[in-house]
Please model this.
Amino acid sequence: MLIKRIIDVTEKCFLVTIAIFTVGAMVQEVMLLIEQRSVALKDLLLMFIYAEVLGMLGAFYSSHRIPITIPLFIAMTALSRLIILQGKDGDPSILLYESGSILLIAVACWVISNLRNRD
Model:
């Protein structure tokens, strides 16, 4: 029992640390955007990733489990941001791989949600 308690406390400490670092990164990004006086799509996607990480932490604290779809949404957003950051100068085959990955993750989300609704 003591080992389980130690693991639970350690897990919660790490999750609180992740939340603090996520909020810190969001504040840094907002300050940078204010300083630059410019907001691009890549910046919005990064802020969305931060919000999803906080949402995932909130979901864990409310239900003591992380729905598998939240990390998948974060992955799709991160891949979308990567595509935008590469711009038009990147290798077209890389764009196909990244967009194919987004499609594959989206199909996985669809399958998971359909399996969940069937139960």
